[in-house]
UniProtKB/TrEMBL annotation:
Assembly: Homotrimer.
Listed pathway(s): Carbohydrate acid metabolism
Protein name as it appears in the record: 2-dehydro-3-deoxyphosphogluconate aldolase
GO MF term set: lyase activity
Species: Aurantiacibacter marinus
Keyword check for Lyase: yes
NCBIfam families, alphabetized: eda (TIGR01182)
Length: 217
């Protein structure tokens, strides 16, 4: 199975991608294990500090059965660095042709952030059919996604930014939503408070919501 097929299969079952933003590798690993225990096996580790790469490497080294990708990738060099560290997919806040072309050339699934019809169309022209929709709630939320989905009929979106258990059903009900991403599953008060059972519970809750609301809209 290719990584693209594996991702597609997992996101079909549990269309939720939790974000881990963590400087402490030990906490990053415990967070990833809690998410996995709760049923989420596709995890995005965001590169928002110098220590984040080590956290991602620790998760890859100390867990089994997860697909671990890198988020907040801003440059081609960073895309190369996360690939070298073992990242299996790449997420960017915006659309940068250079990164998209690099990842496509390496057969790495890449989800650049888009929020306008122009950005989605540029991603489409680059050959992408799956993109991130960011920042989802500020960029128009469900109504905007409905509008984009009506014209980009074979494009699928990963809304991220402002997604929570409360609005997850509305996003997942849309037929062209591939998955939702977000940090609501990894609250710092839980991860830094050592309450990984709470993280597991949030993951379970998201899986249950997804089971009820998937593509019902
Ligand atoms: O791309 C990542 C976003 O910053 C996640 O937003 P969130 O913290 O609202 O889930």
């Amino acid at each position: 199975m290719t990584i693209k097929e594996d991702l597609a299969a997992r996101l079909a079952v549990a269309p939720v991608v939790p974000l881990i933003a963590e400087d402490d590798p030990a906490i990053a690993v415990k967070t990833a294990k809690a998410l996995q225990a709760g049923g989420l096996t596709v995890i995005e580790v965001v590169m928002r500090s110098d220590a984040a790469l080590q956290g991602m490497e620790a998760i890859i080294a100390e867990t089994e059965g997860l697909i671990v990708g890198a988020g907040t990738v801003l440059t081609r060099e960073q895309a190369q660095a996360v690939q070298k560290a073992g990242s299996q997919f790449t997420v960017c806040p915006g659309l940068v042709d250079d990164i998209v072309e690099y990842c496509m050339g390496e057969d790495i699934p890449v989800y650049p952030g888009t929020m306008t019809a122009g950005e989605v169309q540029r991603a489409y022209a680059l050959g992408l059919r799956d993109v991130k929709f960011f920042p989802a709630t500020l960029a128009g939320g469900v109504p905007m996604l409905k509008a984009l989905g009506s014209v980009f009929r074979d494009m699928r979106f990963m809304p991220t930014g402002g997604v929570s258990a409360a609005n997850l059903p509305d996003f997942l009900a849309l037929p062209h939503v591939l998955a939702c991403g977000g940090s609501w599953l990894t609250p710092k008060e839980s991860t830094h408070g050592g309450d990984f059972a709470a993280v597991e519970q949030l993951a379970r809750e998201a899986v249950a919501i997804a089971g009820k609301s998937r593509n019902q809209g």
